[in-house]
Design brief:
The protein is built from 15 helices and eight strands. The chain has about 325 residues and is α/β, with parallel strands linked by helices. It is globular and about 45 Å long. Bound molecules: zinc ion.
Length: about 325
């Protein structure tokens, strides 16, 4: 049997793929006009605002259809469970949340859906804070994006942790997304996890920039992550496309450094991130493609560990166990 087929078989035998990070509410929203206007080539920060048009116009029904279509296709591709971030802010209001709660129930026999709040307007500005504070308890997991409260990242994480402690939830935070040496958000998240006594309940999503730092710093962050019981989710195709820059850094691929995290004993799961939207118009949510990208980009060939990343670690990290 070919190695790739064996990997596929072992994943199936282990309960199927778990997609530990996605945004199902905006799946399949790319349009031809996104290419004509070149929006697909905009910087990440611009894309955070470009989705506002869809978000402000989408009804609960439309959100429900996008989420359902994503789940339907995930099942066809052998995915049995997943965590989707769901927009809940002054733009989408609670329409995506209501749709997600319905979809979660409607699909429960075939797909275990967990949801986390996507705080695309931050959690500190008064209006965004109100939406977060009012609705956070409806989500399985508290999600965060500290960069949306730039300059006040620590406060952003404090707000997430306080809410999670109040509701007994896990926390998943988008960190170190820009693949640059100036970012140290994974370190901040590990420190904040320990400060709040949230050990073993916090997950770093992406941590791409970690790989750009020198070995001594990376090792320090790995030690800190072990102390904090921090877990990681890697989304290979979502970040492997980082743009060339003239900034010099350690040679690496733009991917979560799982080749170093896993041998340290740090839990890692895998996610698709965006599916066919303005961020990633060609990503179809096929977790086998994601797994293949992961093993190739990191030269990581431990088949048992790859199966854990694709299945059991995901279940653990999204709170299914
Ligand atoms: Zn995300």
């Amino acid at each position: 049997m070919q190695t790739l087929d064996r990997l596929k078989m072992l994943v199936e035998r282990n309960g199927g793929f778990v997609n530990a990070h996605a945004h199902f509410d905006r799946a399949y929203t790319t349009q031809t006009s996104d290419f004509e206007s070149n929006h697909v080539n905009a910087h990440l920060f611009e894309k955070w605002e470009l989705v506002n048009k869809f978000k402000s116009q989408a009804s609960e029904e439309r959100y429900y259809n996008h989420i359902s279509e994503a789940i339907y296709n995930q099942i066809k591709m052998g995915v049995t469970a997943g965590l989707s971030f769901i927009d809940c802010d002054p733009i989408s209001e609670d329409r995506a949340l209501k749709a997600a709660l319905r979809a979660k129930k409607d699909w429960q026999d075939k797909f275990q859906l967990k949801i986390a709040c996507q705080t695309l307007q931050g959690v500190l500005k008064p209006e965004a804070s109100a939406w977060f504070q009012t609705n956070a308890h409806h989500f399985d997991i508290i999600g965060g994006l500290p960069k949306k409260d730039a300059g006040r990242e620590e406060e952003h994480i404090d707000v997430l942790m306080e809410m999670a402690k109040k509701n007994n939830q896990r926390v998943h935070v988008h960190v170190d997304q820009l693949n640059c040496i100036s970012e140290k958000e994974t370190e901040l998240l590990a420190r904040k996890t320990m400060e709040h006594g949230m050990e073993n309940r916090v997950t770093a999503i992406h941590s791409i920039s970690l790989a750009a730092h020198p070995k001594s710093y990376r090792e320090e962050v790995y030690k800190m992550s072990l102390d904090a019981g921090l877990s990681f989710v890697t989304c290979p195709t979502a970040w492997i496309d980082h743009r060339r820059t003239e900034t010099l850094s350690v040679t690496h691929n733009a991917i979560t450094p799982i080749d170093e995290l896993v041998p340290c004993g740090i839990p890692v799961a895998i996610g698709s991130d965006n599916i066919c939207d303005v961020y990633k118009p060609f990503s179809n949510g096929d977790m086998m493609i994601e797994l293949r990208f992961l093993l190739e980009a990191t030269h990581f060939y431990d088949i048992d560990k790859l199966v854990e990343i694709a299945t059991t670690n995901g279940r653990q990290i999204i709170g299914l166990n």
